[in-house]
Specification:
about 475 residues, alpha/beta
Length: about 475
């Protein structure tokens, strides 16, 4: 147990109990002595006490009154009464007030040892049960916060009221890198998306605990229902503090958290495609610039953070399976909001991208890529008449889809789609010149199942329709024969 409080007006008896308790087999971290009930009550109001031994007859406030007053305390100690033989009837009567046991004077060592052992087991059981209840409450709160479906939860509401007793509370998001603050945050504190969410009394947020952490703090609330909107406020405030490097930020309706334009579409896929190429450094700088633009209100705060999550997720999808098992550990990344602020995150992100590109370079060297692209081109020449697409070809040469797309264009000087079009239209021109097959049949023969698509593609490349192309070819041949 942590604390034993001995309340006895006779100094020699009080000190003797303290010495015997200190030498017992029960581990007691701190033993406190006081001489009357009034002193004891002040101690009980100021700190948590696990076990209290109290005499019955004392000046200023006796043990009977003290025990009655402990029933109004938020945290009550276990109580053992110290009684003389003449006061034994009082000791029995006090058992009705949830007193756990009694000791008769003169107190013997073996009796004290036995009572301390029993009380220590009770305290241990109570604390275990309390931890289970708190753990259950936290899990319910986590589920309630993450799944606010509007339904009433009376059982949780009752637990919430019991836990916080009408206090003014705040929701606080703080970075996962500040794990040491979880002990200070109180019982309702759990990790979510790389950072911590705590629900704690408002006055705790005004101290030094969360200063200089870029924490996001909600407005105050008192009910379970108010917790949901407070969590959203705290998350918005946390993202704002993260982006602007604000020591801590309290949500305010005077701040426009939604200012700026929406970020351009396609930037995530563009980054992923440029990643394994020589353009990577430029892509990373462009990504860093998005944070600068968001900080200056040019694009929305939410968009740039969403992009950070999406980029890391898409990089993992695109390239993880092309690394060794050991190298795949690179994708065990902490989420952006784990970091204190955007600057800290971007520093780590830049280092990570360089490590990742280095690993990819080991897997995809220049000669190997050149050979694979040549194999792909040969495969396309043989199979362009079929229903061919880039996924099929990249799989054929065992190459990552995104990497294949970039590398194909680098080596062939033209992207996959246009290369395939050229193969098909080149063959269509040959058939128009050398056969009398119908135009639409030729389109089907070179891989176009849709007539309109064939006609449109042919004209976009050749400048004339297939029929016009055939007529022009025949006309030129007649001139040549003449």
């Amino acid at each position: 147990m942590k604390t034993l409080l001995i309340v006895e007006d006779e100094k020699m008896i009080r000190h003797g109990i303290a010495v015997m308790a200190g030498r017992s087999s029960v581990n007691i971290e701190e033993i406190i002595e006081c001489k009357n009930g009034r002193e004891a009550l002040e101690i009980l109001k100021s700190r948590d006490i696990d076990l209290m031994f109290t005499d019955i007859r004392m000046p200023k406030m006796d043990g009977i009154e003290l025990v009655k007053k402990t029933q109004n305390l938020k945290v009550r100690p276990l109580v053992v009464v110290i009684s003389g033989y003449d006061d034994f009837n009082y000791a029995v009567e006090m058992m009705k007030h949830e007193v756990k046991d009694y000791l008769l004077k003169p107190i013997k060592r073996d009796q004290l040892e036995q009572v301390l052992g029993e009380m220590d087991r009770l305290i241990s059981d109570e604390k275990k049960q309390e931890r289970m209840e708190v753990s259950g409450f936290i899990n319910q709160m986590r589920f309630y916060i993450q799944n606010p479906d509007g339904r009433e939860n009376q059982a949780l509401e009752s637990q919430f009221d019991q836990m916080f007793a009408g206090q003014r509370l705040c929701a606080v998001f703080f970075p996962g890198s500040h794990e040491e603050l979880t002990d200070l945050a109180g019982p309702v504190c759990f990790k979510t998306d790389g950072q911590y969410l705590a629900v704690l009394p408002e006055d705790r947020t005004k101290g030094q605990d969360f200063r200089d952490t870029c924490a996001g703090i909600s407005c105050s609330f008192t009910t379970l229902e108010g917790c949901i909107s407070a969590v959203q406020q705290a998350l918005t405030a946390r993202k704002h503090a993260f982006l602007y490097n604000i020591p801590s930020h309290i949500w305010s309706d005077e701040v426009d958290y939604n200012r700026g334009e929406k970020a351009e579409q396609g930037q995530v896929s563009q980054f992923v495609q440029q990643f394994p190429t020589a353009r990577m450094e430029g892509a990373v700088k462009k990504f860093e610039n998005l944070f600068f633009l968001a900080e200056h209100g040019k694009i929305k705060e939410k968009d740039v953070l969403d992009m950070a999550y999406n980029i890391e997720g898409e990089l993992e999808k695109a390239y993880k399976n092309h690394l060794t098992e050991q190298q795949q550990n690179l994708f065990e990344r902490r989420p952006p909001l784990y970091y204190r602020d955007a600057e800290e995150y971007l520093t780590d992100f830049t280092v990570w991208t360089k490590q990742l590109k280095s690993c990819l370079s080991e897997q995809f060297n220049v000669d190997q890529n050149r050979g694979k692209i040549q194999d792909a081109a040969n495969f396309m020449k043989e199979h362009f008449r079929e229903n061919l697409n880039m996924a099929m070809v990249s799989n054929h040469v065992s190459m990552n889809y995104s990497l294949f797309s970039i590398t194909f264009k680098e080596y062939m000087g033209i992207n996959f789609v246009n290369y395939l079009k050229n193969l098909r239209i080149s063959e269509a021109k040959h058939l128009l010149e050398s056969t009398d097959d119908k135009v639409l049949d030729i389109g089907y023969q070179v891989g176009y199942e849709n007539d309109k698509h064939f006609l449109k593609t042919f004209k976009s490349i050749c400048g004339v329709s297939p029929t016009e192309y055939r007529k022009n070819f025949e006309f030129k041949n007649v001139d040549n024969r003449d």
